[in-house]
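Researcher: Quick test of sequence recovery. Tokens follow.
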């Protein structure tokens, strides 16, 4: 169930949310965050999270930067706590960085897929300082072969052959940093659920501090997210 569904793709203004995700990419991202625990399919990291679906990618999973920027400002208007961006571009955009900065200035935690670019570097917007860049690991915790490598990597999460929700209630298995990022967003929502008054920086630091650290930082950042450890150590971290 979505708190709101908006499509910024031309021609889709009146389309039903049931049919709006032509590739299943958005459904899989949203499902990993918040699919309900109904014993059917998967359960998201935090089924209580409210999802504001702002569609910027078309049925080819493409978008002009201007549409991404419009989506960020819409999210700011909706007073969201977290923006998850499971996409990336190779070239720098000053306007995109300004939008990200404006969202951060409003206290929003911004999380983005680092990119499936291997040693070609972390994509934007993940490469911006105000964004948590999320890399992808397989079931053994090893970096996925195509997960971006670079100094901007902040955290990693499972992203190789991940099962999630598809269109019209089915399921799909997909790979990539796009599937890793929403799991970090789900953890962030769990942390915020305990006390909505804490800052985005508090949430970001707890995610990093509670991660399972191993491997070189350019590949794994501060490590693999650990939801249980983060939640068990919340009070101690807050006290400190």
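Model:
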């Amino acid at each position: 169930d979505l708190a709101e569904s908006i499509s910024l793709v031309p021609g889709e203004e009146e389309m039903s949310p049931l049919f709006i995700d032509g590739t299943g990419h958005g459904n899989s991202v949203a499902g990993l965050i918040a699919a309900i625990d109904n014993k059917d399919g998967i359960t998201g990291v935090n089924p209580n999270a409210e999802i504001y679906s702002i569609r910027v990618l078309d049925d080819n999973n493409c978008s002009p930067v201007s549409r991404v920027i419009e989506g960020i400002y819409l999210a700011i208007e909706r007073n969201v706590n977290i923006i998850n961006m499971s996409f990336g571009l190779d070239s720098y955009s000053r306007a995109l960085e300004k939008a990200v900065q404006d969202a951060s200035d409003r206290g929003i935690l911004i999380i983005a897929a680092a990119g499936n670019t291997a040693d070609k570097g972390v994509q934007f917007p993940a490469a911006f300082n105000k964004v948590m860049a999320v890399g992808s690991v397989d079931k053994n915790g090893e970096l996925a072969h195509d997960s971006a490598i670079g100094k901007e990597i902040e955290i990693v999460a499972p992203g190789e052959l991940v099962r999630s929700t598809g269109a019209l209630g089915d399921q799909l298995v997909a790979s990539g940093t796009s599937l890793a990022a929403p799991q970090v967003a789900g953890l962030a929502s769990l942390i915020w659920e305990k006390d909505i008054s804490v800052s985005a920086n508090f949430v970001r630091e707890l995610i990093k501090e509670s991660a399972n650290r191993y491997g070189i930082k350019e590949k794994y950042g501060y490590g693999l997210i650990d939801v249980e450890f983060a939640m068990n150590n919340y009070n101690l971290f807050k006290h400190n």
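The mean pLDDT is 96.
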